Amino acid sequence: MAQGPGNRFDDFFVEPAYLTLKNHLYNYQVRKRAVRERLPLQGAGMMLEVGSGISPISPATDRTVFTELSFSALRCLKAGQGAGHYVVADATRLPFKEGVFRSAVCSEVLEHIEDDLGAIGQMASVLEKGGRLVVTFPHRRDFFAVDDRFVGHHRRYELPEMIGLLENSGLRSLSVCNVLGPLEKLTMWATAALLTACSFTGSSSPAAGRGFRPPAGLVKAFQLINRLYAGLARIDARLAPTRLAMVLLVVAEKQRAPGD
Question: Is the pTM of this model over 0.70?
C-alpha cells in the first residue's frame, strides 16, 4: 500500500525472496483469513480492493479489481497473480462509476491516508445499494507508538470514530470483530524498535539485503514459525476484550434508499 508516507518495512522486501517472506507474515495471514471469512459470496458481482500493495487480501478472480497508488507494486502483483484487473488509483479519487461493485475490501489502508473520510466516501460511492465494505484498521489512539510511526501511520482509530466515519458516508455497520490482540502490539513494537535501532548503525539500509537469497531451509523455517505464530495470534485476539484489540474488522453495508 503506497497511499501515504513510505512503509519502512517495505525496504526489506525489494527482492522476490523477501516478497515470499512478506506474504507469509503471521499478521498478514491472520488478516487475510479474517476478511475472507466475512466477504459476501461474489456470484456475478464485482469486487474491489483498495490499496492492495503487493500483499492483497481479496481472491484474484476475473471479477476482482485491485487498486494501488504505486504502479511498480501493481506490476509486481499482476506478475505474481495473473488473474484480476489492476488499476493505478488514489483511494480518494477512484476512477469508477457509482454502484458498480458488490463488495469492497480496505485492509490496513485508511490509517495511511490523510483524507480518510474522502477515501471512505469514494468506496461507498462505487458500491451498489446493499453492497458491503470490509475494513480493517489499527485500534486505540492511546497505543500509537514507534511501530505506527515506522510504517507511516497517520493515526489509530477508536471504534466509535470508525463507525461514525462509515455512517457519514452512508454505510451502516453490521458487525465488528477482533483481528489481532495485544500480542500483535508487543510483537510489532519490539520489531520496529529493533529495526529502528539497527538503522542508526547503518546495518539495515534499503539496499542492505539486495541480491541476498536466503537458504530454502531458512525460508521454510520462517514460514513454519509464522504459521504457528498466526495460530497464537488468533487465539490472543479471540480472548482479548475489544478494548484491547490492536486491529479491528468492521463489515458495513451501503444503505438502501426507502422503496429500493
Answer: yes
